[in-house]
Write a structure and sequence with these properties.
kinase, alpha+beta, cyclin-dependent kinase, Ser/Thr_kinase_AS, cyclin binding, cyclin-dependent protein serine/threonine kinase activity
Length: 298
């Protein structure tokens, strides 16, 4: 690791620290994700191995952050794993926070198209991300390119669906089936998160700003209406379903007015309660919302 000069810490999460660094051989900037391996553990953590494996699967996409190398370093009998990524200048959360006068609709379309393109590639290769949020979407300010990052919670999926944990996705972007305790779910959980990000790009703040699972559900129900068996067959059988207060749906066109009618239509298709009814990422790319986008420049 002597070839990499750490410049500053740029992030820290459950699975380790992330540093901005310079590659002494090439002079290029890189991001180092560092994970301590406890001596009591039996080897490299499964989350790190899974992230490495999935990133290698997705390495050909222009919309997924590129893993450059993997380094295992042992100092004083203390092993540490380093994932070396391409470095990007910013992330979508910082970009949203910096736009004091709002984000132009043309930029929203470009960013949403790139996000749908990247997730369509992931889903097409059997990978669901499970933690989509603005902080995990990196931006190259020079090329105006969005790249999906942080695959630590991602999983390869198969048919029939396996039993998955419901402790995934940051609250503001967590799909209702996960909030209600579903353990069998698939790619629609990512589509719900994309819908939440879509609205946030326009509003400048999260659409459903809950700080607990219950409050998150109530935020969703107040805006989209409280679902029932007619809207979402099987909902009453989910583990954490109760009789919630009955709210009628509000008009999305009044909640997120600046994305136009085509944008509201796309958003409504992403925020369908019944997971199989949600639009897929591949279908979203063909939606009229993107008709006037110059896709050759994306």
């Amino acid at each position: 690791m002597e070839r990499y000069q750490k410049l500053e810490k740029i992030g820290e999460g459950t699975y380790g620290k992330v540093y901005k660094a310079r590659d002494a051989l090439s002079g290029r900037l890189v991001a180092l994700k560092s994970t301590q391996i406890d001596r009591e553990d039996k080897g490299v953590p499964s989350t790190a191995l899974r992230e490495i494996s999935l990133l290698q699967t997705l390495s050909d996409s222009a919309y997924v952050v590129r893993l450059l190398s993997v380094e295992l370093v042992v100092r004083n009998s203390r092993p540490r794993l380093y994932l070396v990524f391409e470095y990007l200048d910013s992330d979508l959360k910082k970009f949203i926070d910096e736009q004091s006068s709002g984000i132009p609709l043309s930029d929203i379309k470009r960013l949403m198209y790139q996000l749908c393109k990247g997730i369509a590639y992931c889903h097409g290769h059997g990978v669901m991300h499970r933690d989509l949020k603005p902080q995990n979407l990196l931006l190259d300010n020079k090329n105006r390119l969005l790249k999906i990052a942080d695959f630590g919670l991602s999983r390869a999926f198969s048919i029939p669906l396996k039993n998955y944990t419901h402790e995934v996705v940051s609250l503001c972007y967590r799909a209702p089936e996960v909030l209600l305790g579903a353990t069998h779910y698939s790619t629609p959980v990512d589509i719900w998160s994309i819908g939440c990000i879509f609205a946030e790009l326009s509003l400048g703040f999260p659409l459903f700003p809950g700080d607990s699972e219950l409050q998150q559900l109530l935020h969703i129900f107040r805006l989209l209406g409280t679902p029932d068996e007619n809207v979402w067959p099987g909902i009453s059988k989910l583990r954490d379903w109760h009789e919630y207060p009955r709210w009628k749906p509000q008009k999305l066109s009044e909640i997120v007015p600046d994305i136009g009618m085509d944008g509201v239509d796309l958003l409504s298709k992403m925020l369908q309660y019944d997971p199989p009814k949600r639009i897929t990422a591949k279908e979203a790319l063909e939606h009229p919302f993107f008709d006037d986008l110059d896709k050759s420049q994306v």
